[in-house]
Amino acid sequence: MTVIAEQTHQAVHTFGAPRLLAGVAELGRVDLANHRALHGDPVLRRRTWLSGALRDVNLLGRGGAAFPVADKLDAMPSGRVNVLVNGSEGEPASRKDRTLMTSAPHLIIDGALITARALGTSGVTIAVHDQRSHQSLSLAVRERHDARRLRIVRTYDGFVGGEIRAVINGLNGEGGAPGGRRILPHQHGVNARPSFASNVETFAHIALLSRLGVSAYAHTGSNSEPGTSLLTLLGDVEEPGVVEVPNGIPLASLLPGRADAPVLIGGYHGTWVRSLSGLVLDRAALRAAGTPLGAGVIARPYAGTCVLAEVVAVSRWLASQSAGQCGPCFFGLPALADDLAALAAGAGIDRLQSLIRRVGLVRGRGACAHPDGSVQFISSAVTALSDELEAHARHGSCGRPTSQVLPLPGGAA
């Protein structure tokens, strides 16, 4: 089932019956009346019920880290707390969160209100940097009487600006970059209060779980990770765009054909692989295999294109996104991008050894996750694209047109 979402002009489709995207195929944007017809009123639950249900279905956060949501809820103290819905989708290759915000905003709001009720608070903030998403959510709040105290705030743009600590710092007037100290939201969040924070898709799943109950929610998906996930598929795929799929599905079924082709899993902090064999849509299993799902992006460049040149372009952009807080990021990422560009221009083994040495100097030493994620993107590309690297080393180029699958803001290169 395929449709162009009215607000985002993004193709969306589903494998099996839609849940998060229910009604989108017919309506484009699901307004309150249609949302109520599809999902009913939000089913408010006690904290103990919600915690147990989250644990029973092993709901993992959809923002990239895949942290158990039940653990987040259980870590929240009682008293004056906040709920923070992170809609700052800074990953250029991902459209899943923006599609959800523009197409099914009421499901997100339901999840936020359910969580707030369970925690005994009315303090709910939705943070979003995208204008269309902001407009859609603002309209949704005006459509309903139970969300009048909900606050929607525009946040800083940029890749690291979507990281939860960066979002909290921005909301607290401390700049839109993550701090060097790892302070978790349940310790210090919005307005310096403990905050339950997760991304928009997570809250939509909370709404579905509360409405359906554990048994019905777990009717689809795998035993280890019930439910569905939103992915962004790019490039040489049958239906590019945002797709809702049951968890547990083999990744190869989403990208049939061309078994030995480079595929990026997880986005610009993700991992390049040459085979999808044995990989399924299960966050724990993917992490154990060294290919975390991250931002939910799966991209396969077209055959006959130079993927290495596109990796260089993305690497340079990643270097430009440094928050400038630490040397491994501020100096290390541009140097890695230079090494990669030199390899694409035909440099030999000495430059490859330089890149490998720099990877060791950057990895694990950053003030936030950006250096490690960027290193993973670059180092895995070097391994997955060894045939291209060899061709460039011999001839200075592989002679193919540059791949143009991975988007960059403003056409950055």
Total helical segments: 16
Q: List unreliable stretches of 5+ residues.
A: 1-9
- Largest sheet composition: 7 strands, mixed
CATH H-level superfamily of the largest domain: NADH-ubiquinone oxidoreductase 51kDa subunit
Mean pLDDT: 92
Number of strands: 11
Radius of gyration, rounded?
A: 21 Å
Quickly count the domains. Answer: 2
CATH topology (fold) name of the largest domain = Rossmann fold
Secondary structure class reads alpha/beta
Straight-line distance between termini? 34 Å
What would you note in describing this structure?
By secondary structure, the protein is α/β, with parallel strands linked by helices. The protein folds into 2 domains: 2-217, Rossmann fold (3-Layer(aba) Sandwich), CATH 3.40.50.11540; 307-411, NADH-ubiquinone oxidoreductase 51kDa subunit, iron-sulphur binding domain (de novo design (two linked rop proteins), Up-down Bundle). 40% of the residues lie in helices and 12% in strands. It has 16 helices and 11 strands. The protein has helices at 24-27, 32-39, 47-56, 69-75, 96-103, 105-119, 131-143, 164-171, 200-217, 283-288, 307-320, 327-330, 332-344, 349-362, 370-384, 386-395; strands at residues 2-4, 11-14, 82-87, 124-128, 151-154, 195-199, 228-235, 241-246, 263-265, 271-273, 297-300. The protein has a 7-stranded mixed β-sheet. β7 and β8 form a beta hairpin. α5 packs parallel to α7 (131-143) and α11 (307-320) runs antiparallel to α13. The two termini are 34 Å apart. 54% of the residues are buried.
